[in-house]
Amino acid sequence: MIIVLKPNATEEQAKEILSRIESAGLKPLYMPGVERIVLGALGDERVLQQLHLDAYPCVENVKPILTKYKMVSREVQAHDTVVRFGNAAVGGNKFAVIAGPCSVESEAQLMAVAEVVKQHGAVALRGGAYKPRTSPYDFQGMGVEGLKLLHKANQQLGLPTVSEVMEVGQVDTMCEYVDCLQIGARNMQNYALLKAVGESKKPVLLKRGLSATIEELLLAAEYIYDAGNPNIILCERGIRTYETATRNTLDLNAVAYLKQRTHLPVVVDPSHGTGVRELVIPLSRAAAAVGADGIIVESHLNPCEALSDGHQALTGPMFEQLMQELKPFVEAAGRTL
Amino acid sequence: MIIVLKPNATEEQAKEILSRIESAGLKPLYMPGVERIVLGALGDERVLQQLHLDAYPCVENVKPILTKYKMVSREVQAHDTVVRFGNAAVGGNKFAVIAGPCSVESEAQLMAVAEVVKQHGAVALRGGAYKPRTSPYDFQGMGVEGLKLLHKANQQLGLPTVSEVMEVGQVDTMCEYVDCLQIGARNMQNYALLKAVGESKKPVLLKRGLSATIEELLLAAEYIYDAGNPNIILCERGIRTYETATRNTLDLNAVAYLKQRTHLPVVVDPSHGTGVRELVIPLSRAAAAVGADGIIVESHLNPCEALSDGHQALTGPMFEQLMQELKPFVEAAGRTL
Amino acid sequence: MIIVLKPNATEEQAKEILSRIESAGLKPLYMPGVERIVLGALGDERVLQQLHLDAYPCVENVKPILTKYKMVSREVQAHDTVVRFGNAAVGGNKFAVIAGPCSVESEAQLMAVAEVVKQHGAVALRGGAYKPRTSPYDFQGMGVEGLKLLHKANQQLGLPTVSEVMEVGQVDTMCEYVDCLQIGARNMQNYALLKAVGESKKPVLLKRGLSATIEELLLAAEYIYDAGNPNIILCERGIRTYETATRNTLDLNAVAYLKQRTHLPVVVDPSHGTGVRELVIPLSRAAAAVGADGIIVESHLNPCEALSDGHQALTGPMFEQLMQELKPFVEAAGRTL
Amino acid sequence: MIIVLKPNATEEQAKEILSRIESAGLKPLYMPGVERIVLGALGDERVLQQLHLDAYPCVENVKPILTKYKMVSREVQAHDTVVRFGNAAVGGNKFAVIAGPCSVESEAQLMAVAEVVKQHGAVALRGGAYKPRTSPYDFQGMGVEGLKLLHKANQQLGLPTVSEVMEVGQVDTMCEYVDCLQIGARNMQNYALLKAVGESKKPVLLKRGLSATIEELLLAAEYIYDAGNPNIILCERGIRTYETATRNTLDLNAVAYLKQRTHLPVVVDPSHGTGVRELVIPLSRAAAAVGADGIIVESHLNPCEALSDGHQALTGPMFEQLMQELKPFVEAAGRTL
After folding, report:
1. ipTM for the complex?
2. Chain B residues with CB inside 8 Å of C33's CB?
């Protein structure tokens, strides 16, 4: 950790901080410059952060050297983690396509789309039973009835399921009915929920928050890991920027960056990442090319009747086209579909 | 609602949508232009949103005319709402200063700072017992022991308290010990929590999410209102932008805009809004000038020992200076301190 | 164009605006709703924008129906434009790789890297002679001497050149020595410069501004087109967001979106788009997969000695690796390298 | 400067960098940590930046200690700079109000509004003769005829003028007719233009770029200063964020921050900063409260007829109201109006 003092800071003030660093069991460094005094502290930065040296009035700023996340880092585990649920595996040689409707709306709707996506190669079924909606007047999901339908779909088709959990009180019920718990973008920093899914040990698909940094995403994963659950799939789903032509800005830089820094698998959500049906296929191709371990994509056999996000859902024929177009890119990336 | 069709859309496709609008009990409008067909739908847009017309492949985009929020709007209630808890009132003639430490750390720490802020004119005491922290390795708060200390501080000093609630399971306990429930920025779209505090009827201080639009903030308030609780204080606390010199970008445009659109009181958090101790006083002055109903500010008698956010906390003398500097600006705004 | 009036607007005010629309030769529409009066104006929106209806106090907002750009749109020209300079073509079946150093630094440096990139398949050479630098104390480029070296490189290797023009006064000299004029991100809305390169008729590589919307990029291209020059290559080079792990956020959504809306070719700059050498190859692969017409990439045989942007430059062996890795993705996209 | 090496960096690699630091005449520091080797370099960082140490493959990142700007910093000059043009002074005890139309449209329009703003206390007249417009089809300004009208207004009313210069070729003509040259947001990093206005020695009003950091704004000012012109007024005019309710997000944090770091005067543009007429007055009050040295505001006697930006222009009566409302806040800030 590097501590830069203000221009008018005195040697005495520097010494006070240095002795505080030393008393915490770390090695202090004194670097008097021409325009500034700079201090260093060598050792475990997680201890140093407890010192809150940035609170000293004579401190201009504190520059950490190490990242705050640890267990999810490649420095702790060099090889890739593969997360398995049902007969799906994310993070291995197979590029995993998870597909299904935004919301579970009825048995007929769910079964029909589940069959189509399975037929064309999806390895898991997505579908929301509890829906986080910006407005209280929007459709809020079928709740536990939706979960039961997902369970039924899995039993009939052998397609493991992913569904969003919105609060601590839902975790147990969710674990009963679905195979992988999704933490939505709005809940990425809902720490009580992170701890709860961490304790559940169920595989977790953790979506990046709307304006979360890559480091914050990794720290959210670290919460789950720290609570005892290493089965974490990270999901890039677009970030909020000034651009309004697309719903979000899909950050594929983040995918390549994450693959270098963490051993956890990374999937991409091109449906929310673009918010535009016509852009889903090209961005899915790009996801495969950049090195993602899979995609999670919205599909609805009749988008005009969808109760949510119909504008970004792929129809059945479009889903088939997606899988055909993906194939050569997945193979170019050295994987199978 | 205005529906713009794609350039190649046919009259037939337009008619299908028009008949759907009509069957929903709304008045359809057909506007064939030179380059595009444009459709209109007059009536309650909240019904229209259920139609999901943007999911039609022939639709380029849908432009809503009305806002989605309703009960929190000045169109429904023209006069200002005043939210009262203990002997504090936010939204009236008095500019409300809520102050206290980021975290409750000990009885001695809390009582000492509470006395100082009360002496200089604070009307309520803030302090976190449950702390949302980016890293699992950071101090997570004293929990219920912290709540008890807040309660004690109120009993001894007559200073009502504001503290953050982080999950549904905490709401009942929080209601027992504190006077106003804070929803933090990370939880602004934690809808289960919004509903729970809505049902509790306790006054709520709702912070704007890190990258929430003004409309999303009002819709989050609408969730609480819709659940039966009109006692809502909105809080602008800075948004996330590309600028790194300050922790966040305090959006005072939003305060002026909100005061025109909603009857709910609006306070400003210059501590998180800037993240820099030296900027807290000038931005507090600006908050008073722009028309805010108060501020919520972090203060700690010994910031260098603070367990969180010491770098942005005002010392005792700085808090006194804040109140002195605020006075003429509050009066210029036609209020009292 | 749709004009939404404020809640308290009167019928009289509406009539005033309607008559203004009519007198401009457009067809006015009156749509009285339950909560708002909405007006429409059918016809050429470019005329309507001259009316500045949003300036009326009774107007809440104005929603344009049509885009402001026209000549660069696929609605005017459905087929792809191919931009040619020297023996390079951008926009056709061949995926164009433009490569070279950030800055021209010396004859030896330029020739060495030019030979390497040509050998491995680059179709054009990039290199800055005039450098826009954030600080006045940074290296500002070799100027006209740099241009002469680019010219020499082209003569010796048959590799056409791309270089940045920073001001109107440089256009003539640039045209003499280089084959394609680059407009940098900081100058995307330097309208005098856009007009000047438009009048020059030279091929132009137009970079998206640091925080320019897609529509603003297309309007900047429209300036060049409108000045008489249809030879425009658009370049996505990353936008500024809150994320700091990468220098910029490469917006591949924009590439897919642009390919649908404009007939102009689109290339990607993964060097500036990431700012991290290790991310250049994966994002180049993604650019090919998303449908870009090529990439423009920085390469330097000895990045540690580079006078600018060495941290994002590919070494010779890395450039070779880039071309090898690109090949299957380019082919999967139905193109050749 | 602090240089953090990658986890797998060797001592040998560290030594190579240390010797490079030493050979540049600086003092190297070697700090081997548990997880990383960290290097330091003490001395003039502007020399260090020429070393481009971030280009070394073994370097993870480089953290500068000192800011890159120097001459505009309070560390070089502690006292406030006052910029004078005509009988206007910006940066002193008087809060400077600069007002006028977005565009000069005609003699009648300009004279009428100039008289009104002068009568109510404006110290300078703004008005655009060359207009940077997003679309080539929008009104581009009256050009030199507009400049002549500004000159005439100054002669008749004794009101010095501010007008935007858009390219190097206009600088001489502008200097002939107007008293203060405005660099617009889109040109903040048009370095050729910065150097040209620097050489002209005329007072410059430098607007912050749409997504420029505070440091980039100060470096743009440093360009002008470095070219020999210390007469620089900085202008905060709103930054681009994800929020769409307002045209830009006015960053008053930046104003308070700038006043602490630079001796240059800082004014606020609440017209572009909000883009909404109704928000101009509250944000002007906030600008005075936060410590700005003045405001630059758009006013038009008949906004509905304005050729540009009518939606954010104050009418005559609103301008009068602005001045009345400003007064107590300016006085609370210890200044006069």
Report:
1. 0.94
2. 42-43, 65
